[in-house]
């Protein structure tokens, strides 16, 4: 399909609002998939399409997709073996038609007005290439875990890139499942990098910022992030750390920057997060997770 050029200015009288395309890469996420897709199709903003890139799931995923696609023409899907989430997402970028794009994990789901608030922000602030928001962590049933993560408060810009990486300890200044951006402007920065198979979002947003564009902030919950044992951040913890370290080095972080990240940056991230865990339970959880990952790493060694 040919890409449609869009105008980032607010639509004038009689002009249609921008079409929003949401890509959902998935593989064997049947227990969570319908919840994710219904959160998209039931958005208060109706002018959207959803493209699901399924990697040839062997569970109930395809049956869910067939049923939902038959009921709502805005949902399309492709189910075939692929080389992972990054390749599926990049293929999806060639198939969508929207002016604004978002990418959602199939085990997470949106707040009911997440698309509408993002579109309104982008139309009102054409100086930004995209916008992100906050997340609440939930369990597999959707019950809140009483904690979450917030996006960077303020303008994410090339000039602030290194400072953001140092002072914001928690992984990425943009929370991937909350991001919406102008497709034709994002296309200038290329697609997601297959060499960053577990942190493609971090690499991409850092590349966008380093390339001269700015990202805005919606200080509100846009997505509910599901915590479960099979989530990629848990399964590939050590690979995540390795890729992040390579990205930090690429963007000029030295040993003293890492010292600041692990001390001042960590403290500022924690105390600046209104959805933070209580201190002592949070420390206990991190220690448990660290020990679990250490044991898994030992078990994987030959």
Strand content: 15-25%
Helix share, percent: 40-55%
CATH class call of the largest domain: Alpha Beta
Gyration radius, rounded: 19 Å
What is the number of independent domains?
A: 2
Decide which structural class fits the backbone.
Answer: alpha/beta
Q: How much is the average pLDDT?
A: 86
Q: What is the H/E string?
A: EHEHEHEEHEEHEHHEHHHH
* Inertia-based shape: globular
CATH architecture of the largest domain: Alpha-Beta Complex
- How many strands, which pairing sense, and closed or not: the largest β-sheet? 9 strands, mixed
| Low-pLDDT ranges | 1-9
Count of separate DSSP helical elements: 11
- How many strand segments? 9
CATH topology of the largest domain: Spore Coat Polysaccharide Biosynthesis Protein SpsA, Chain A
Distance, first to last CA: 47 Å
Quaternary: single chain
Explain this structure.
With 302 residues, this protein is of the alpha/beta class. The chain folds into two domains: 17-106, Spore Coat Polysaccharide Biosynthesis Protein SpsA, Chain A; 108-302, Spore Coat Polysaccharide Biosynthesis Protein SpsA, Chain A, CATH 3.90.550. 40% of the residues lie in helices and 18% in strands. The protein has eleven helices and nine strands. Strands 1, 2, 3, 4, 5, 6, 7, 8 and 9 form a nine-stranded mixed beta sheet that branches. The radius of gyration is 19 Å and the shape is globular. Residues 1-9 have low confidence and may be disordered.
């Amino acid at each position: 399909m040919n890409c449609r050029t869009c105008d980032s200015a607010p639509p004038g009288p009689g002009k249609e609002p921008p079409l929003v395309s949401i890509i959902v890469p998935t593989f064997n996420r049947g227990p969570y998939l319908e919840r994710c897709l219904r959160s998209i199709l039931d958005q208060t903003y109706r002018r959207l399409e959803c493209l699901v890139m399924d990697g040839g799931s062997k569970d109930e995923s395809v049956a869910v997709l067939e049923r939902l696609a038959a009921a709502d023409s805005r949902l399309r899907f492709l189910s075939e073996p692929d080389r992972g989430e990054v390749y599926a997402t990049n293929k999806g970028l060639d198939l969508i038609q929207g002016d604004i794009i978002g990418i959602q994990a199939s085990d997470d789901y949106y707040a009911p007005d997440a698309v509408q608030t993002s579109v309104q922000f982008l139309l009102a602030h054409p100086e930004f290439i995209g916008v992100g928001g906050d997340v609440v962590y939930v369990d597999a049933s959707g019950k809140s875990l009483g904690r979450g993560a917030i996006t960077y408060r303020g303008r994410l810009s090339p000039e602030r890139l290194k400072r953001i990486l140092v002072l914001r300890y928690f992984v990425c200044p943009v929370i991937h499942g909350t991001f919406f951006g102008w497709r034709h402007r994002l296309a200038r920065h290329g697609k997601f990098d297959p060499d960053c198979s577990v942190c493609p979002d971090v690499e991409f947003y850092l590349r966008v910022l380093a390339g001269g564009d700015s990202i805005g902030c919606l200080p509100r919950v846009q997505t509910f992030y599901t915590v479960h044992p099979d989530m990629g951040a848990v399964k590939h913890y050590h690979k995540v750390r390795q890729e992040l370290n390579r990205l930090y080095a690429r963007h000029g972080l030295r040993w003293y920057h890492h010292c600041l990240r692990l001390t001042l940056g960590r403290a500022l991230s924690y105390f600046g997060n209104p959805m933070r865990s209580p201190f002592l339970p949070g420390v206990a959880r991190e220690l448990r997770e660290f020990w679990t990952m250490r044991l898994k790493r030992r078990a994987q060694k030959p």
